[in-house]
Structures are given as structure tokens and as C-alpha cells.
Amino acid sequence: MEFKLSKEHRALQEKAREFTEQVLFPYEMECEENNGITPETHKKITEEVMKWGFNATNHSKEHGGQGMTLFEQMLVSEQLGMSTGAIWDAVPQPSFPMKFGTQEQIDEYLIPSCQCKRRDAYAITEADAGSDPTQCQTTAVKCDGGYQRRKVVRHRGQHRRLPAGTYPPGRRSREGHRVLRGEGRPRRED
């Protein structure tokens, strides 16, 4: 079995290494000393991400991404991860499930995220889900005035859906989170 990288894979790996050294490394001290990078630095990195072609390696070209295979994504991520302070996160890789949205959602959220025009965030707030979204038990159903959460309760082999609360858009859920939309990185509001 051959374990050597192909010529194309070596070239991609080298390109990602050069990007990391030339674009990300110079901002590591700023990130470390200031507990993050400035919006101006983030903009510079984003411009370079687009020039170098490392935006949305995990999404199809149809949606504005690079259409890389999982192996190619790993080669790139390996090099980006050489930078410290999670500065590699300035290279956006939009959440994969976004590709399963409606066309309207893809147009509004996925394509701009793939083109570095907006950022996405992904979080799981259920205690037993960990990082596995297939373990989530709560769903949201659109209703008058917002969304109603429904929790699946398993009790002795029976499944029941229970209302878990209705929240108008922009209001806090029981977990105290509110999605803040707009430019830049989505964040939790305490």
C-alpha cells in the first residue's frame, strides 16, 4: 500500500503551510497579547483567505466554497492548526449542515459565509448531546410569534413530545442565549 502524498496533495499542503506562515503567523502576537485580533486584522486575513483560495474548503464550488475532499481539507487544516491562539479560526469553514437548508437559507446564510461575507456559529445546548447533534432531543416548530421548542421524552420505551417554551425572535431562551445577527462573528449575549 502506497502512503506517499500525490504531487497535487503535496502542493496543496505546501500552499497551506505557506499561507499559515505568511498570513497567520504574523498576527499571533497580536492575538496572544490582546486576547484576540482586531476587526482590521480579521479583515486583512479574510482578504488573504479569498486570494489564496482557502475559504470554505468544506463546501462545494456551487455554494462558493472550494469543493475539497475530506482528505484535502485535512491537509489544509493540519497546516492552519500550526498557528496559535486559535487564529486559524479566522479562516472560515461554515458548518456543514448549512448545505441542507432551503434555497432561501442557502442564499442568505451559506453562500455569504462561504464567500467570507458573514460568519456562522454552531452550538449544542443539550446536556447529553455533547458534540453529537444526532443526540439532540429538542426540535423547533415555527408558530405564531416565534418558535416553539419541543422536547422528546423517552420513558419506558414510550416517546412523547412536550412543549418546552415559545420564544419570539430576538428573545432569550431558557438557556439565556440570543442570536445576534450582523457583521462579524456571532456571539453569545450574557
Strand content: 5-15%
Distance between the termini: 53 Å
Q: Please name the CATH topology of the domain at 7-93.
A: Butyryl-Coa Dehydrogenase, subunit A, domain 1
Oligomer: single chain
Q: Give the number of DSSP strands.
A: 3
Bulk shape:
globular
**H/E element sequence:** HHHHHEEE
Rg (C-alpha, Å): 20 Å
The helical percent reads 25-40%
Q: What low-confidence regions span 5 or more consecutive residues with pLDDT below 50?
A: 152-190
CATH superfamily of the domain at 7-93: Acyl-CoA dehydrogenase/oxidase, N-terminal domain
Largest sheet: 3 strands, antiparallel
- How large is the count of helical segments? 5
Structural classification: alpha+beta
Question: Class of the domain at 7-93 in CATH?
Answer: Mainly Alpha
- Largest beta sheet: strand ordering: 1-2-3
- The whole-number mean of residue pLDDT values reads 78
* CATH architecture heading of the domain at 7-93: Orthogonal Bundle
